[in-house]
């Protein structure tokens, strides 16, 4: 049986009621917290930074999966480890020395993730896949929640899965952007292990039940 990891994206939470929304996720069947950090340079939006993550960490009782959409992420690896990140994901497009960055993340005791923008070919990970704990395939252009899912993602998952198997790597696959009950099952069938969901969870009438439903749909 395949048990898919569900990672609600806090970007879609109500920031004026952040503790309440974190407690909802704590009490739910969700597995991780997905935390989007945007710098207004790598992506055309600014989300939130260290003080907010520090506040989230105090209450969050599940794995903290931090997605850095920032230039030069190497500068902040130690900082994010100190703020409670369990998984730190950097963008392939922001890392000219990706291998070094991955080693630095692991040296701080975190799992190392690499995110690929929709236009970035999975074949570019041929030489690093064995060093990567998780690949995050962006299924929207990063920067905003609530965008619609890019259909080409399914074939990227299949290509990535093929690469992981061929290289005998233990990398898991995360999908980020536009995930709903309409595409969740097909994503998992294609090979996804982790589904990030922002708006679909937090803007639902009943986020807890929505997570239960997502879990059910994706248990194959
Ligand atoms: C987009 C972020 C996503 C976003 C997902 O740049 O990386 O994690 O919060 O939100 P939804 O699920 O609403 O597309
Ligand atoms: Zn994200």
TrEMBL record:
Positions annotated as active site in the UniProt record: 36 (proton acceptor), 176 (proton donor)
Molecular functions (GO terms): D-ribulose-phosphate 3-epimerase activity
Domain of life of the native organism: Bacteria
CDD domains: RPE (cd00429)
Cofactors that this protein relies on: Co(2+); Fe(2+); a divalent metal cation; Zn(2+)
Keyword Metal-binding included in the entry's annotation: yes
Alphabetical UniProt keywords: Carbohydrate metabolism, Isomerase, Metal-binding
Cofactor note: Binds 1 divalent metal cation per subunit.
Binding site for a divalent metal cation: 34, 36, 67, 176
Pathway given in the UniProt record: Carbohydrate degradation
Family recorded in the similarity comment: Belongs to the ribulose-phosphate 3-epimerase family.
Protein role: Catalyzes the reversible epimerization of D-ribulose 5-phosphate to D-xylulose 5-phosphate.
Name of the protein described by the UniProt record: Ribulose-phosphate 3-epimerase
Organism, scientific name: Flavobacterium buctense
Gene: rpe
